[in-house]
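pasting for the record
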Amino acid sequence: MNLPLGYAYATTYAGIRQAAKDDLALIVSGMPANAAAVFTQNRVQAAPVRLSRRHLKLSRGLAGAILVNAGNANCATRTGDAVALSTCKAAAKLLKMPVVQVLPASTGVIGVELDPRKITGALPDLVLNLKTDAFEAAAHAILTTDLVSKTAFAEVKLRRGTARIAGMTKGSGMIQPLMATTLAFVLTDAHIPGAALRAMLKRGVERSYNRISVDGDTSTNDTLAVLANGASGVRPDPQELRGMAKARAS
């Protein structure tokens, strides 16, 4: 398993969920990454979904960090929007990046107020403990009812070098077409223009998440984000991009 270059990860138990296991994860790109995302199509959308949409629009498709919590969906509460924004601002300040380059995501119980201090208080240690080899820890920290973590990795040999791809996802119940109770984050160190990245993501989702069904419910928090930071220095040509989109996971 060779992880994409230029990314670092950190996790901790912030006291958000009842069980004392990691419930907060931070994924950081060492340079602003081209980003694309798809979200729930439910009429009711959680605060992190609304804010991530807004941040991607304001940043013109650039992202430097993903802040994920498990145990509380930050949805259907009085303070959800304020919590999502304040935690992104705290992360951006510590990471020295524009707040619009921080994408929030949450999963867990709905309708319970989320205390932002649990996240903001944990962020300084998270930033200090960012590691390039903590991908699997992050994949575990985002789980809720899942019994195992779900990860996939691929390397694509291109004319100018090798590009690496790594993905993590969570979700077990409430799955049906149009995603549903899914958080997913895919990272690559290839340089992929934003428009091409969005097109690749759209095609991939139609062939994967939007074909899965378990019990017919959709979620308020579905988020699938793809980051391409170009840290490998590899720029796939248009034909190679099609190959990357079809890369088989190991």
